[in-house]
């Protein structure tokens, strides 16, 4: 038995030593941005740090807890000179980080007062393959929208730098959330992308749909009154917020009809139930003919 145990244990110890060494490297917080509804953005720099879109890191703040490590998806793009995470304040540890960064104070905080941060990673996810397809469907549910912030930023940087060499030609983005206010920072990102694409006369590059799954009658009445306005009253985007859940069968059939003979990447960050639905739709809407349309499903669950 020991012959079978020694090898895996040795590899495990090596992996723990590498993680410990990486966690001891110096991390500098360059900026803390407070977003609405108790969401903070930490922009950081670390020597030798290299990332790809959609990856995540483990974060430890000794000022809050000397032992706790928490995973956060990177929301910056590889083209930016920093890496960032967005943290929503929903528990004791995130509340402690919020206070340690001085976000509970009204006055401006000096950089030297910011807490020390340890970072381990980055670690890969399925979202890294997004540039392997010409057509992609990105589906983010709730907090699962965060990896697509990195993806959309990176796509736009690549598009502005050299659009002719960018394999990706069309993005269908779906955002399912119970309360858009909790992720107002992401709506700001979409607004920026929307405005820049219109300036370049390529508004068709990104097609997005926002579904509000948790709503009541007063919200529906407010939506009906302001439906004819140019911008959506909830997100400020030209695309109107939709209520309820998508009809995935119709969405897949529509996209398949618009892109015959294509390999379409379907990327999900969301709950397991939604993953099962999209997986079944990807299989049922893919053709047996190798020259026909094929949906390739990729997921990461939380």
UniProtKB/TrEMBL annotation:
Record domain FAD-binding FR-type: where: 19-129
Pfam families reported in the protein's UniProt record: FAD_binding_8 (PF08022), NAD_binding_6 (PF08030)
GO MF term list: metal ion binding; superoxide-generating NAD(P)H oxidase activity
SUPFAM superfamilies in alphabetical order: Ferredoxin reductase-like, C-terminal NADP-linked domain, Riboflavin synthase domain-like
Gene Ontology annotations of biological process type: defense response; monoatomic ion transmembrane transport; superoxide anion generation
Keywords: Cell membrane, Electron transport, FAD, Flavoprotein, Glycoprotein, Heme, Ion channel, Ion transport, Iron, Isopeptide bond, Membrane, Metal-binding, NADP, Oxidoreductase, Phosphoprotein, Transmembrane, Transmembrane helix, Transport, Ubl conjugation, Voltage-gated channel
Chief subcellular location: membrane
Cellular component terms per the entry's GO annotation: monoatomic ion channel complex; NADPH oxidase complex
UniProt membrane topology term: Multi-pass membrane protein
Function: Catalytic subunit of the phagocyte NADPH oxidase complex that mediates the transfer of electrons from cytosolic NADPH to O2 to produce the superoxide anion (O2(-)). In the activated complex, electrons are first transferred from NADPH to flavin adenine dinucleotide (FAD) and subsequently transferred via two heme molecules to molecular oxygen, producing superoxide through an outer-sphere reaction.
Full protein name: NADPH oxidase 2
């Amino acid at each position: 038995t020991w012959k079978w145990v020694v090898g895996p244990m040795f590899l495990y110890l090596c992996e723990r030593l590498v993680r410990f060494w990486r966690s001891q490297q110096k991390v500098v917080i360059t900026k803390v941005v407070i977003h609405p509804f108790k969401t903070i953005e930490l922009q950081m720099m670390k020597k030798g740090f290299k990332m790809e879109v959609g990856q995540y890191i483990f974060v430890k703040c000794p000022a809050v807890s000397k032992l706790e490590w928490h995973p956060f998806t990177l929301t910056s793009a590889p083209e930016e000179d920093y890496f960032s995470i967005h943290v929503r304040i929903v528990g004791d540890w995130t509340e402690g980080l919020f206070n340690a960064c001085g976000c509970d104070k009204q006055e401006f905080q000096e950089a030297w007062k910011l807490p020390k941060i340890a970072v381990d990673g980055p670690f890969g996810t399925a979202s890294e393959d997004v540039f392997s397809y010409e057509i992609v469907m990105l589906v983010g549910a709730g907090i699962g929208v965060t990896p697509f912030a990195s993806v959309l930023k990176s796509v736009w940087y690549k598009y502005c730098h050299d659009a002719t060499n960018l394999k990706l030609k069309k993005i269908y983005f779906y955002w399912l959330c119970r309360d858009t206010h909790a992720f107002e920072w992401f709506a700001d990102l979409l607004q920026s992308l929307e405005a820049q694409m219109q300036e370049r006369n390529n508004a068709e590059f990104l097609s997005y749909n926002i579904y509000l799954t948790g709503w009541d009658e007063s919200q529906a009445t407010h939506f009906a009154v302001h439906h004819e306005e140019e911008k959506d009253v909830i997100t400020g985007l030209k695309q109107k917020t939709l209520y309820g859940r998508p009809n995935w069968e119709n969405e897949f059939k529509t996209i398949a009809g618009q892109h015959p003979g294509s390999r379409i990447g379907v990327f999900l960050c969301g709950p397991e139930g939604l993953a099962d639905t999209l997986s079944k739709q990807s299989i049922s809407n893919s053709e047996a003919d190798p020259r026909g349309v094929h949906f390739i499903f990729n997921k990461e669950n939380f």
